[in-house]
Write a structure and sequence with these properties.
- It is a single chain.
- By secondary structure, this protein is an all-alpha fold.
- It has one domain.
- 92% of the residues lie in helices and 0% in strands.
- It has two helices and no strands.
- Helix 1 packs antiparallel against helix 2.
- The longest helix has 34 residues.
- It is elongated, with a radius of gyration of 16 Å.
- Keywords: Membrane, Transmembrane, Transmembrane helix.
Length: 63
């Protein structure tokens, strides 16, 4: 296994993470919407989760 292959895999993993974060956040939003039937509560939780994931992505991008 060459070093180049490992580097490409690492970059792909980062891209996949970037792609799946909004999908995951949207899924969390839908789930909480179904469970609570309280839009304010679910929006608050979704906002918190989205900010958390954005912070993780930003930290990964800076590093």
């Amino acid at each position: 296994m060459s070093l180049n292959y490992i580097l490409i895999l690492g970059q792909m993993k980062k891209r996949v993470k970037l792609l799946f974060t909004p999908i995951l956040a949207y899924g969390v939003f839908i789930t909480f919407n179904e469970f609570t039937r309280n839009p304010g509560f679910s929006l608050l939780i979704t906002f918190t989760v989205t900010v958390f994931f954005l912070w993780i992505i930003f930290r990964e991008a800076v590093r």
